[in-house]
Amino acid sequence: MKISLRDKKNITSVLFASIVLLGLILRFYKIDWGESYYFHPDEYHIAAAVDRLDFPNNMNPKLFSYGSSTVYLIYFTKAVLGNININLATINPILVGRFYSALFSTLTIIVVLLLTYQITKNEAFAALAAFLFAVLPGAIQQAHFTTPESFVTFWLLLSLLLIVKAVSSRVGKFMELSAVAFGIAVATKISSLIFLPILLIAPFVQAKTKLSGNKLAIVTLHSIKLGLIAFFITIFIFPHIFLDHTAFISSMRYETGVGGGNPVVFYTRQFINTTPIAFQFTKILPYTLGVGVLLLGLAGILLALIKLFRTLKTNRKLFLVVLTFLLLFLTNSFFFAKWTRFIAPTFPFWCIFSSYLLFHLFGKPTSPTRRKLATLLLTLVLLTTTLWSSMFFSIYSKVDVRITATRWIQTNIPKGSVLLTESGNTLDVPLWGIYTKKVFDFYTLEENPINLVSLATDLEKSDYFIIQSRRVFVNHTRLIDNYPKSANFYKQLLNGELGFVEIKEFDSFPELQIGAYKIDLNDELAEETWSVFDHPVIRIYKKTKPNSLNYYEKIINNQ
């Protein structure tokens, strides 16, 4: 039976809508993870910034690294909800922020679809890219955090889409709208300025003829106009760049220093002695993308570069997409601090390039062998991505591991016990209970001999020791030369010399369970922010052999 053009359009529309709906479900499900406990420190920073606002008296969020658009959006949403129902005025700003993170991440699926269609002119492969992004673990995770990454990704990708549309249609309004979207992105996170060169060269890329004289002047003025539009949009949304410029400059100096490794703060120690690019390809991308999208995306990028080398003048849209990806990925990859969130805006591009590769492999004319290879790669990327996404999503279908650990402690550790644990966490396990909790700062153990005495004293008095996550012990045992004292402590703890024995370990690794069969993947050694916020590993040690203060001092000093 022949399918009419109208039926084809209806089928296509249903397919697109289904992909977006799937992405929406994966992003909105369990956005209240943590069961009223919030474990991401950046969420607290944003919530505190929201609470500082008082319209119209004080609208300075004093959170310059994250801009103000996210903070304002949460604040005014709470205000509107409060006017609708007084009870809604007390809703936690973190939950409102997570709602918007999930929403903007869902909208990004649509932008991925439209942008892929622009460079392939094929609805099937546009749908494929959208599907891959809809189920992408890294995007799903960022959508569950009240952080700017989902917002920034949407606005930057939208700006790129509008530029690409302008280049292909020569409709001026698309360029101006792209400048507006870019201005919002900068007001959301100042690091979005990386995209500025794309906006400024867009009018030159749009011009089909060689530029000279008046034509060059007109295009140059158009470029300046776009920059000014973006500038005024940014200032309108983020006015305290100038109104509180001293604090803004101070904040930027500090954030730039931390990003560059000067100073090395406690939460950037994992990046000491790491290699740019290699770190992202071993510690971030296999987890955030999955192996299928990573490998096909990489091949797609290489293919796009080859295509551009041969046909740069006629592939202006592809040129803009590739250049944007390279700017976002390479610039952020060479910082000292290589957090997952720094390259989060590149996640959609890996899906786009994966689809772009398959589009060319399936293209006509093609040999049977090439088509078989394309079919195999398509099957593998769909299977591996769906499988890994299902495994990662299981994290949000379970009770948070810190709550599980706390409940176990209530049942199995006597009330009044002294629990020694590590500092540097937003909240410490146990989250509640009648216990004496001693929180020791292992990050400063190397700096002052008095800290060694304090640790020995705490060990003598403690009944249990709790490792809250991989943050301290994994980083410090890897960097023995940098942190010999804390590395020695964890070595002695793990080999039993301190008289403590591990009695329980709690994890929430990505897993897949089918009937009685279950497989999981230990992802604890990925870039630490991948796991420490929503699925850390908790380890509980019990003192089975009490020792004297003098003994602990000798062991800690490695005597």
Automatic annotation (TrEMBL):
Q: How does it sit in the membrane?
A: Multi-pass membrane protein
List, alphabetically, the InterPro entries matched.
ArnT-like_N, LipidA_mod_glycosyltrf_83
The protein here is known as: ArnT-like N-terminal domain-containing protein
Q: What would you give as a GO molecular function for this chain, any one?
A: pentosyltransferase activity
Which GO biological-process labels does this protein carry?
Answer: lipopolysaccharide biosynthetic process; protein O-linked glycosylation
For this UniProt record, the keywords arranged alphabetically read as follows: Cell membrane, Glycosyltransferase, Membrane, Transferase, Transmembrane, Transmembrane helix
Residues crossing the lipid bilayer are 12-29, 63-86, 98-118, 124-140, 152-168, 180-205, 226-243, 284-306, 318-336, 342-362, 374-396
Species of origin reads Candidatus Woesebacteria bacterium GWA1_41_8
The ArnT-like N-terminal domain sits at 19-237
Q: Which domain of life is it from?
A: Bacteria
Q: Where in the cell is it found?
A: Cell membrane
Q: Which GO terms describe its cellular component?
A: plasma membrane
